[in-house]
Amino acid sequence: MEHKLVAEGTNRTSRLQITTNKKGVIWFDQISLMPADTYRGHGFRTDLISMLLDLKPRFLRFPGGCFVEGEWLRNAFRWRESIGPWEERPGHFGDVWHYWTDDGLGYYEYLQLSEDLGAAPVWVFNNGISHHDEVDTAVIAPFVKDVLDSLEFAKGSANSTWGSVRAAMGHPEPFPLKYVAIGNEDCWKKHYRGNYLKFYNAIREAYPDIQMISNCDGSSRRLDHPADLFDFHVYTDSRTLFSMRNTFDRTSRDGPKAFVSEYAVWQHDAGKGSLLASLAEAAFLTGLERNSDIVQMASYAPLFVNSNDRKWNPDAIVFDTWQHYGTPSYWMQTLFRESSGAMVHPVAINSRYSGSLAASAITWQDSGNNSFLRVKIVNFGWHTVIVRISTIGLQASVNALGSTATVLTSGNVMDENSFSHPKKVVPVKRQLRNAAESMQVRLAPHSLTSFDLALAQSKLVTLAEKNDEYLRSEI
Questions:
Q1: FRET label pair with 279: which of 91, 119, 163, 247, CA 20 to 30 Å apart?
Q2: What keywords are annotated for this sequence in UniProt (predicted)?
Q3: What confidence category does residue 435 fall into, taking pLDDT thresholds of 50, 70 and 90?
Q4: Alpha carbons within 13 A on the beta-carbon side of 163
Q5: Is residue 185 annotated as a catalytic residue, yes or no?
Q6: Which of the following is catalytic: 185, 338, 416, 469?
């Protein structure tokens, strides 16, 4: 049964109540109150999707990490039970984060959202392993068959068994699913490698175009099994993450590329999203950008949190029933959104404060084909630092007209945004007055500064390879 409710006023604390004038027991299965106007009519709040679009995401990793595993396999995400008519989906208990989900946001909706965002879907599936139980490799075949069916649902023709189910849901054309992650944080588990190879070989045979992601970290030593990418997760304090800005400098270029699918500063340094956390993360990202020949994708995690049901801090975007805001970590990422497809340049820092500085440089073009040299510098220290930017190898001079400096900082390193002060810590842009100011810059203590220096010519001679697939996002 569907019914349209039309509000006659605004009440931010209103809620849906279903009552009866007769005494008795009534059983309800699925109940949902949805706004009439959602993004492209697909059920997502337009204000929250706009926050995603402003990050210019190139991929979407779903349906999560630990959510995929479950504390126990009986509570793991099951893609088959998350498709078809919403009211017929059984739902399941997400025992890792302790909430019931009706799976109205299911496998199909994630594929659809990726398409709506113009982002490549990255499907993370269960490989027969949860936090507390595992399927022996000898009997993993039904799980492998289940995943092959999920790929046919996404990529198969409308005449195929599972492709026809997708077509019946309103999407006859296949989804461009290119990436799959075989499990989540399972590398150390007893049956991971055995199970992994079963999935890898079956998928490679059926879908040779799909890129497969291993849970095992290949940043410091070569993997002992085949993979197209390896997954890298890091949650730590701000000082440690800042020190990890050179992590991938030493990674072998002969092995699979890295997918940094979960990174964040957390616990005491992060609060509910602090400036300090965002600066350490920015320093880490400069290292990923400089090593984008080996780091193919990166995403902050978690992406969203409902302020009425927090299970983890911090998160990039905070919302309740009617409002939202971005944490400093969200705003920090907006200064990296032009990195995808840009030209990466080597950077050398010569300063007595070099131990507290991190930097990266790219050249990129805006929608009007204007060329810019973007230099991002993190000052993680307590001192104001004055540096001079000099370039070698650019056949283009800096034009002060159109050059800008954007600074993310605040009065206290633990400052946060909130519903009452959503823009307390956000990037502030200003025009640079002349060429001298463009090349000699002042870095505020505990700040991220992004200089967009307009180039007088578009023809460049660079010292780096073009980075075609440096994907930037958030899940």
A1: 119
A2: Hydrolase, Signal
A3: low
A4: 12
A5: yes
A6: 185
